Amino acid sequence: MEIKGKVHEVSPTVQVTDSLKKRELILEYIENPQYPEYIKFEAIQDRCSLLDNVKVGDDIELFFNLKGRPWTDKAGKKSYFNSLHLWKINVFGNGAATPEYAAPVNLSAAPGDNDDLPF
Question: Model-level pTM?
């Protein structure tokens, strides 16, 4: 799955257990500008380094897997948890950046000696 948005927050890497490290990213997702959504994604293990060059305000595209698992508490009540595990990030820059385009071509200029078009 994939989603585009703006980086709202990036957490430092946390060593959860001896064998598990985790890092979180909060994405500002604006499908409706009046009501932005803030979605938490997790990077685990070697994927934590994907967030090293991501900064608050960057426009990004995230690729992630949706995970779900059950959990039963001591009283026997079953609950379900969802998590979004990111596995790839494309950074487009900060929100102030503008797209880059090729320089315009002057089509009204007279053809020169280097004109190799067949028409």
Answer: 0.73
